[in-house]
Queue: 2 jobs
Job 1
Amino acid sequence: MKRIVVVGAGAAGIIAAWKAARAGVNVTLLEKKERIGFKILISGGGKCNITHDGDIPKLLGCFRRNEADFLRPSFHAFTNADIRHLIESKGVELTVREDGRVFPLSSSAKGVTAALESLLADAGVELRTLAAVSEIHRSEGEGWMMSVSPPKSVDPSGNSSLRIHSDAVILCTGGLSYPGTGSTGDGWKWLAEMGHAIVKPRAALAPIFLDVVPPNGWAGIALRNSVLKARQSSKEIAKSRGDMLFTHRGVSGPAVLDISRVVAEMRQFGPIELCADLAPDSGYEKLKELTMGWIRQHPKRSLSYYVVNYAPARVAEDILGKSDIAGKYGAQVTREQRNRLIEVIKGYRIGSVQHVPMEKGEVTAGGVDLGEVNPRTMESRLIPGLYLCGEILDIAGPVGGYNLQAAFSTGYVAGLSAAIDD
Ligand SMILES: Cc1cc2nc3c(=O)[nH]c(=O)nc-3n(C[C@H](O)[C@H](O)[C@H](O)COP(=O)(O)OP(=O)(O)OC[C@H]3O[C@@H](n4cnc5c(N)ncnc54)[C@H](O)[C@@H]3O)c2cc1C
């Protein structure tokens, strides 16, 4: 019987192994951690946003154009409805939130990984955990050979290494973010040695660290529903509307995660400034009208009562300081000061980007060049018998269940193709 080895038991590897075994081949799934699906367990804050509701074109529309083109065949082969049915078939109830994100009804990822583990067992997959692959070779006529040993943390001597042979290999070792989950970029090292082009890995869906950290006591303060903008040489390079949060090192939250990939990619070309429009529903003229109206109504009140409509108290204080009107009443404010206040509210300076930390990204952008993988089979275009799926590929979707869906769908196609290809 054809023998397939799947390296990495994340979302992609689990579905690839399950599908290949269901297609009737002998499958071994090697995972270096002590259990499968570490990243699934921490996804969605432990609640596991497994996919997104909606039709396939809508889902694909959330990825960059080249990524969507690549994902189209696999998203149709194994849809968001398919992964839902599969998980539900194991008794895990799912729910669709108002924004279209799909979660387990229990709000716990544990049921999802338990369901996936049970599917692997039903399909007859041989699962080996604490099995870290250190080398992969292919020799003509003999197929693939992998050196496998317990991770160094379990066996520092490295003496208990063994060799496993197979006819085909599915590599799904993930990206580089959250390395504690087991994703440490191992696959890219082997693939680069085999001649594959690896697009430089960068953080995506990550917090942003600032050159000057937020003032003491600001960590945890949120700016709600503002428009966060990133500028480089006074050109806007990214923007996102949503909540953001000050942290000890910089900023985080949905709007920050959303622009982090572009910021990480563009940082090499020069300094990047972040600012937030705290009144995105009012243009300058409208805000001027509102501000003048408030001042007319409350000439004897401190403007801090007005600015808290746009920002939490501590940020409001900073806004007043930057507008030169700290402690002033409405009636004491000059036209210049009022105009300055409006400018500060519309373009509140958050700071200069220092760094977008890869290890804290929910996804790694970059990875195996999509041009070198057949999107209909997930087989390498350079090396026959080698299949690639999941985050190891140069794909990074937005928040919302898209990344797990990409891993599930590409894993499914890789598993099926590896099983049926001659
Ligand atoms: C904090 C966080 C929250 C997230 N939340 C969501 C969410 O809610 N929804 C969503 O869609 N996406 C979310 N994501 C992203 C999503 O989890 C990943 O995109 C997806 O899990 C990637 O799956 P994968 O199988 O390609 O890679 P991984 O899950 O990274 O799996 C790779 C596996 O390979 C194993 N491995 C690596 N090297 C070796 C080796 N040498 N030998 C053997 N095994 C090896 C690793 O241990 C790991 O188990 C989140 C990610 C993070 C970090």
Note: The pocket of flavin-adenine dinucleotide is lined by residues 7-13, 30-33, 38-40, 42-44, 49, 132-133, 172-174, 177-178, 182-183, 186, 362-363, 390-391, 401-404, 407 (CB under 6 Å).
Job 2
Amino acid sequence: MANKGILVVAVAQRGALPPATYELVTAGRKLADALKEPLAAVVLSDKASALSADLAARGVDKVYSVEHPSLAGFTEEVYAKAAAQVALKEGFGKVLLASNVAGRALSARLAVLLKAGLAADVSDIAADGKVSRPYYSGNLVAEVEFKSPVAVMTLAPMSFPRAEAGAAKAEIVPVAFDPGAAKTAFVSFLPETSNEIDMGSAERIVAGGRGLGSADGFKPLFELAHSLGAAVGASRAAVDSGWIPYKYQVGLTGKSVRPKLYIAVAISGQIQHLAGMSSSGTIVAINTDKDCPLMQMANVSVQGEYSELIPLITAEVKKRRGASAVAA
Ligand SMILES: Cc1cc2nc3c(=O)[nH]c(=O)nc-3n(C[C@H](O)[C@H](O)[C@H](O)COP(=O)(O)OP(=O)(O)OC[C@H]3O[C@@H](n4cnc5c(N)ncnc54)[C@H](O)[C@@H]3O)c2cc1C
């Protein structure tokens, strides 16, 4: 069978589809229209029917709904088997996953099962199916052409807008699935007891560096982030100093992020930090040193002492947000 069509793999997380799924739909639609091929999604969950209805309204041509108790918790083995079953049976040529923990893990297994080429962290897809992805910590963006009949790719977060729900309703096809004897089993999920915004999918990030001077220096940043609805990030120097846990680290050995707005406070902008955030939409730098790399490359550079500037900015944000809330 000729490999044709684009398949979005929708991996439910604790009963819901992560917003990155809707970014996959936008990217898939773009590719499907360019190649004049159909766009489908496969929903993997123990509650796939309800989630399939959501996806069916977002511009895909068909939704394959794989609902099975073995898909209640994520294991790469069982999820990959379920996704591969649909991809192989229908002969899809391009398989799209999110560049999150589940998507990355699944993409490697799927590429093996489908005998497919794999490109990770894709940031753009051309009309001819070639993709752009970063190399050498984002210092180089390469154009990748798949030589294999089937291509698996994970898409970098926030690279495509999220597909909105519309009036159209795609056909939903229930798929029977037998996981067989799995070697791995889902045991439990321990949620983080925090209501902070996840950095990976945040549209706004306020990050702090060594110039904050201490763990206390992060307090005004958390306040600004809260007022903006932003996630908090940090440089490795701040993490290594023990001021903030590693999960906040942005950069080569931390997280790669791509928010619409990245506010770097008291971060100099060494190459290893830039590797994780230079693809952000608008970059604002706040620093006492106007000549440091981040101040040089930022869209907006504000020279000054962070402890004076951040409370002023936070107060202004609160004032304006309050005003718009009243106006609304
Ligand atoms: C293999 C490797 C991997 C690495 N991975 C990472 C990574 O993932 N992420 C990462 O961030 N780094 C990483 N690093 C470290 C990186 O090289 C830098 O050391 C680090 O990013 C510096 O952090 P910083 O900008 O906070 O500190 P500094 O470079 O010390 O900069 C502090 C900044 O604060 C400013 N400042 C000082 N006081 C104030 C004030 N009161 N108000 C406003 N501004 C002020 C200063 O002017 C300065 O620009 C890595 C390094 C290596 C070798």
Note: The pocket of flavin-adenine dinucleotide is lined by residues 209-211, 235-238, 249-254, 266-268, 270, 272-273, 276, 287-289, 292, 305-306 (CB under 6 Å).
